[in-house]
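Figure 6 in text form: structure in, sequence out.
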């Protein structure tokens, strides 16, 4: 057995008979299908990266009692230094896709690390459910599973409560027996589900008393009978070539609706059972939500650095770098990139011990969420602004270079002081793929919504801020004077 999980092992594990549909058809093998095979290779690349001898220490650790190393995302830091060590592994993984694999395996590992840290919350809910969560953490981490999750309900009538939606829309418990529960209905939006081993099903959106049928959480292998995965359009399949679409052709992690068609879940995989408040507590009373979104900010720190790298090169490609207004825009972008990094460092250093575990600073994490969901579209707009038509005045595809007459004209027209014509085309196609293509547009939607709509993230920020500390400053100021003092002073 090799030191840790490899890409080949992961690919083999996906040939499991899962039920994935795209373009009206059932997919026989996600590892071979043109809609998914490159994304699968990218996931495999992450495991190959961690198993390279020079990366093993950076990327993996050996859990107690195990003879096999696993990714550091499963590590439960006991102090700030261990949190930083763990983060460096997550950053190194994010760099492999320039941050475009939003739901790389470290996202769910982080969610589960946080939930496992708060196991006492599950104990309050029930010893059996706590045991199921602890056992699952052990199984998933020891096997370095790639997990995804569906924790959001499909939008239908947002003005109604979840329990009032049409029957069979939102996944719910429809039956149970001594073996487990049966669930029916849908959840969105299983990013990376086509290339994950298992899915965590839960409820992040608030439920209320009376909605007990909806109030469950469980984990299932992706090939579970009755679990149907309805893929969105594949940007990978629509990519023209790696040269034309270097990012979307390889890092289209996919998003999919999951429909649970009377899926049976054994009790050993049920973590929350008919308890609306426990659905909230699973994420918010444990450090689960903090950890999963701290991972998201680590990944974003890489992606935003990549984007500013694109910005700088765009100005080089068209020769504007040294113009004062352009420098100002680049300087402003740089300040924003550093803000993302500084907030990440702040979450770590201003974290706190919860029992024996070090957890990131919650309010800093929520602040980062609020600010970056606004920041991302603004950064994209700045890149477009810096580029003008350069992103569009490009050969239709790599095939234009095969035609000598066209190649000659491309050579004459794609000029740049810093790049040869071919290099310029290659770079600008990468830039458009990242920010303007359908894939790039999906990424803007992702960064704006993966953590919840703005009213949700600002709500978290509101709830976790130190209002007492802030208002005390105001109260202390006002305690130093009053009306009667002032009247007596000014009466003379
Ligand atoms: C690319 C992508 C990938 C995703 N991947 C995953 C995944 O892997 N797993 C997963 O579980 N989820 C995933 N999601 C879902 C994501 O978590 C949700 O999109 C997000 O939580 C927002 O919920 P929603 O889509 O229902 O939007 P809504 O909450 O319905 O918001 C849509 C709009 O309606 C407004 N609105 C709705 N209700 C209210 C209200 N009560 N008050 C004020 N305004 C309101 C919002 O402000 C917003 O403008 C993904 C989403 C995207 C876009």
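Output sequence:
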């Amino acid at each position: 057995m090799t030191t840790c999980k490899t890409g080949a092992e992961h690919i083999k594990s996906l040939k499991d008979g899962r039920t994935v549909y795209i373009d009206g058809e059932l997919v026989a093998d996600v590892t071979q299908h043109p809609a998914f095979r490159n994304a699968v290779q990218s996931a495999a690349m992450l495991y190959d990266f961690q198993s390279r001898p020079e990366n093993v220490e950076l990327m993996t650790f050996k859990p107690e009692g195990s003879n096999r190393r696993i990714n550091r995302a499963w590590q439960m830091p006991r102090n700030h230094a261990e949190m930083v060590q763990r983060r460096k592994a997550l950053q190194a993984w994010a760099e492999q896709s320039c941050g475009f694999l939003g739901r790389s395996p470290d996202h769910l590992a982080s969610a589960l690390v946080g939930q496992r840290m708060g196991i006492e919350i599950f104990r309050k809910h029930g010893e059996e459910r706590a045991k199921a969560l602890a056992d699952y953490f052990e199984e998933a981490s020891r096997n370095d599973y790639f997990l995804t999750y569906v924790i959001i309900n499909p939008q239908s009538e947002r003005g109604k409560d979840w329990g009032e939606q049409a029957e069979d829309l939102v996944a719910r418990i429809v039956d149970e027996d001594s073996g487990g529960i049966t669930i029916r209905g849908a959840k969105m939006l299983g990013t990376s589900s086509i290339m994950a081993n298992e899915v965590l099903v839960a409820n992040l959106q608030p439920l209320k008393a009376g909605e007990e049928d909806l109030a469950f959480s469980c984990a299932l292998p992706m090939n579970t009978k009755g679990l149907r995965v309805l893929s969105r359009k594949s940007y990978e399949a629509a990519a023209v070539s790696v040269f034309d679409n270097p990012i979307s052709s390889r890092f289209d992690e996919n998003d999919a609706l999951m429909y649970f068609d009377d899926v049976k879940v054994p009790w050993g995989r049920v973590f929350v059972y008919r308890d609306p408040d426990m659905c909230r507590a699973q994420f918010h009373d444990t450090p689960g939500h903090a950890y999963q979104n701290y991972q998201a900010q680590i990944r974003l720190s890489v992606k935003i650095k990549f984007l500013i790298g694109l910005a700088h090169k765009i100005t080089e490609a068209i020769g504007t770098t040294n113009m004062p207004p352009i420098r100002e825009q680049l300087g402003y972008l740089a300040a924003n990139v550093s803000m993302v990094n500084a907030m990440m460092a702040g979450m770590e250093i201003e974290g706190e011990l919860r029992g024996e575990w070090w957890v990131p600073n919650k309010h800093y994490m929520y602040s980062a969420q609020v600010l970056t969901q606004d920041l991302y579209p603004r950064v994209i707009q700045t890149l477009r602004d810096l580029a003008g038509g350069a992103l569009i005045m490009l050969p239709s595809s790599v095939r234009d270079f095969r035609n000598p007459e066209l190649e000659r004209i491309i050579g004459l027209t794609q000029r740049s002081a810093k790049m040869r014509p071919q290099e310029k085309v290659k770079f600008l196609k990468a830039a458009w793929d990242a920010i303007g293509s359908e894939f790039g547009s999906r990424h803007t939607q992702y960064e704006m919504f993966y953590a919840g709509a703005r009213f949700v993230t600002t709500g978290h920020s509101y709830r976790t801020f130190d209002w007492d500390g802030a208002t005390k400053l105001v109260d202390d100021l006002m305690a130093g004077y009053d009306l009667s003092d002032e009247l007596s002073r000014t009466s003379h």
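Caption detail: The first helix runs from residue 7 to 13.
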